[in-house]
Amino acid sequence: MVLHEAARPLKGARPFCVPGMEVLDGRPDLRLKRIGCPSLPHTTRKRSLEVWRLDAGIVYLRLRRRVVVPPGALIKLGDIASIETDRRYADKIRELTVWKMRPEDGNLLMIDMLQIVRLIRRLEPSLTVETFGEPHVLLETSPEGKIKPRYALLVAAWLLLFFGSGMAIMNFHADVDMPVVQRRIIELLTGRPDRHAWLFEVPYSIGVGLGMLIFFNRVFRKRLNDEPNPLEVEMFMYQESVNRYVITEEYAKTRQREDGPDD
Amino acid sequence: MIELTGEVLVAVVGLSGGFAVGSAFVALLIVLDIVPRLVQLARAHRRSAIFESALLAGVIGFNCADMFDWRLSLAKGWLLAPAILQGIFVGMLAAALTEVLNVIPIVAKRLQLGRYLFYLLLAMVLGKVAGSLADWLLFQQMHQ
Prior knowledge:
The complex is a heterodimer of chains A (263) and B (144). Chain A has 263 residues and is an alpha/beta fold. Chain A is 50% helix and 16% strand. In chain A, the strands form 4 sheets. A 3-stranded mixed beta sheet of chain A has the order 4-1-7. Chain A has a 3-stranded mixed beta sheet with strand order 2-8-6. A two-stranded antiparallel ribbon of chain A has the order 3-5. Chain B has one domain. The interface between A and B is large, with 59 and 68 residues.
């Protein structure tokens, strides 16, 4: 039964019986052509089945990591994955409806690769699906399908960091008794205390700024080189951890849905 | 001549000291994940320049005001802004520090209190607020 279904020839593809393998030029999709004739021994028939499937076509799929969609959107496979396949079914597969966003899905939803493979097999059972990259995609709902920064919060965060870091540096100076250390250094180096305190203070202030800029790997708009700065790396790691957490949670939820509520 | 050398050395020590402090300061804030959290709240990915400028301006501005005694004569009401914002900042620092040290997850796991994680957090928050109030309003007053 299974054999029969998998070996069902495609519409439009003309099967013909050739003993052995034959290479047909110019048609990469038809390069390997071999079918199992009823008279062939069992093993040959089995192998010929594989060849049949090769011939029937392979879909190469790579899911995106995170896709932003408007609420209530109809998610097509082409929206969430890069697809490489035979021209015959490329459009059909791209237009495959994967999901319709519902309000109860929340603003983060995971689509599992298995769901997609199931859909493709339902559409065309003879297709083989080869997947690359992440086995899942995260759908994030946001009005108009793109993420807009929250400007009020952005301003608040700017002020928060401004005052916070300012107070932190003053706290640090008070904590380590910077003026005393300053006077001591000047005394040790020039022999007299309390002269030219600004000589220490001005380079120190410039040094603080330069140290931070070097850490951030940029001089204002201009980057020093293409490497991301530690802040950007940390932001990326943070986002990755959040993604991983959401995905794990979603898998747990899916399993619960399939097995029924436990306890 | 010797005097000049000494003065140049003072400047060099100052500059390198500033370097060390500036980069260590940023490294601490980044390790504590405060900025990534704010970026997420403001949904401002790929705009890290904004947050960097805030840190830079804050540190340099307050550093200079502290050292060169820049004084503004503003009304008392203006104090509210730095008071609230600096309070939030210290709160975030404290929370981030406990988070990095994994205190709460470990306590919750050891004592099997995972279900009451929220109440544990709440206890910590209330404790910090009560401690801060008691410190400012009672103990510091007593010392004066």
